[in-house]
Design brief:
InterPro entries: KR_dom, NAD(P)-bd_dom_sf, Peroxisomal_Beta-Oxidation, Sc_DH/Rdtase_CS, SDR_fam. Pfam families: adh_short. The protein has 2 domains: 250 residues, Rossmann fold, CATH 3.40.50; 39 residues, no CATH class. Helices cover 42% and strands 14% of the residues. The protein is built from 9 helices and 8 strands. It is globular, with a radius of gyration of 21 Å.
Length: 299
C-alpha cells in the first residue's frame, strides 16, 4: 500500500515505533528511523535493509526544531521527497502530581507535545513545497482521552496532541494533507508497570501469544497496531482526516470529538444561587465519567 512512499517515524528504535517502521517498510516505503539511542535505531535499519527495504537512521532527541528539520532534510536527501511523518517518540515520568517535579513535567511535554508540533510543522512546510499532499499520523494515547492516575504530564501532552490533530487537519485540508491521531494500546514495556498487565507484557516479550480474552478486550502486540497506521498513511485513506482512531488487539475504535452534552439558558444571565438551583435536576444527569472506573457525574 505504500510502494514508493518516503516516511519518517520518530521514536522507532523499540516497541510500537519499531513495529511502525518495519510495517511501513514491509508495505514498500523508504523509512527514516529516528531514535535518541543509536543502539536502538541501528538494528531497526539493519532489519529493514536485510529484508530488502530502504532505511536510514537519524539519532537525535525529538522536541527541538533542529531535529525536526533534520528528519525532513534527511528524507529528502536520501530518498528524494517526504510523503508522511509519524510522531511516535515519547518518554514517561510517572508520578502523582504532588511528587511530580518541574523537570518531570517539562521532559514529557517537550518530547511528546513540542516534538509533535515541531515535526508536524517541518513536514507541512515540505508538503507545501512539494505541492502534492501528504500524511501526518500523530500518536496519542488513551491517557489523553480519559484519566490516567499518576500521568498528569503524559495525559496533558497526549490530550494536546489530539487537539492539535483537529486543528492541523483544518489548516492543511486545502493542500491535500491528512492529519489523524492514532490511539494505540499494546502490551509493551510502556505499560509493564501497570500491575494488571505486568505478566502479560512479560509473556509477549517471551514470544507467547496474547490470550484471546485480552485480544478481544483491545489488548494485543505492537504489531497489531501497525495495520491501521499503514492504512492511514496510504492513498486509500485520502478522505480520512481530523480523526482520533484507536487500535489494540482485535479491536479498532473511533473516538468521539468533544461535544456539548447539555445546555441551559436563563434570560439576563446567572447568579451562583441560580446555578445551584438548576444544576442538580437539569445538568447533573449529563455529567460524564472522567475515568474508566468512575461513575457518570462523579465529582
Amino acid at each position: 500500500m505504500l510502494s514508493g512512499k518516503v516516511i519518517v517515524v520518530t521514536g522507532a528504535g523499540r516497541g510500537l515505533g519499531r513495529a511502525y517502521a518495519r510495517a511501513v517498510a514491509d508495505s514498500g516505503a523508504a523509512v527514516v528511523v529516528n531514535d535518541v539511542d543509536a543502539d536502538a535505531a541501528g538494528p531497526v535499519v539493519d532489519e529493514i535493509v536485510a529484508a530488502g527495504g530502504r532505511a536510514v537512521a537519524v539519532v537525535a532527541p525529538v522536541g527541538p526544531t533542529e531535529t525536526a528539520d533534520r528528519l525532513v532534510a534527511t528524507a529528502v536527501a536520501e530518498f528524494g521527497r517526504l510523503d508522511a511523518l509519524v510522531t511516535n517518540a515519547g518518554v514517561l515520568r510517572d508520578r502523582t502530581v504532588a511528587k511530580m517535579s518541574d523537570d518531570d513535567f517539562d521532559t514529557v511535554v517537550e518530547t511528546h507535545l513540542r516534538g509533535t508540533f515541531t515535526c508536524a510543522r517541518a513536514a507541512i512546510t515540505r508538503f507545501r513545497e512539494q505541492g502534492d499532499g501528504g500524511r501526518l499520523v500523530l500518536v496519542g494515547s488513551p491517557a489523553g482521552q480519559r484519566a490516567s492516575f499518576g500521568q498528569t504530564n503524559y495525559s496533558a501532552a497526549k490530550a494536546g496532541i489530539v487537539g492539535m490533530t483537529r486543528t492541523l487537519a483544518a489548516e492543511t485540508a486545502r493542500i491535500g494533507v491528512t492529519v489523524n491521531a492514532l490511539v494505540p494500546v499494546a502490551l509493551t514495556r510502556m505499560v509493564a508497570s501497570i500491575p494488571a498487565l505486568t505478566d502479560a507484557v512479560a509473556a509477549v516479550e517471551r514470544g507467547e501469544p496474547v490470550p484471546a480474552h485480552l485480544r478481544e478486550s483491545g489488548l494485543g502486540t505492537a504489531e497489531d497496531v501497525a495495520p491501521l497506521l499503514v492504512y492511514l498513511l496510504s492513498d486509500a485513506a485520502a478522505d480520512v482526516t481530523g480523526q482520533a482512531l484507536g487500535v489494540g488487539g482485535d479491536r479498532i475504535t473511533v473516538w468521539s470529538h468533544p461535544a456539548v452534552a447539555a445546555e441551559m439558558s436563563r434570560e439576563g444571565g446567572w447568579t451562583p444561587e441560580g446555578v445551584a438551583e438548576a444544576f442538580g435536576p437539569q445538568l447533573a444527569p449529563h455529567l460524564q465519567p472522567y475515568a474508566p472506573d468512575a461513575p457518570a457525574g462523579a465529582r
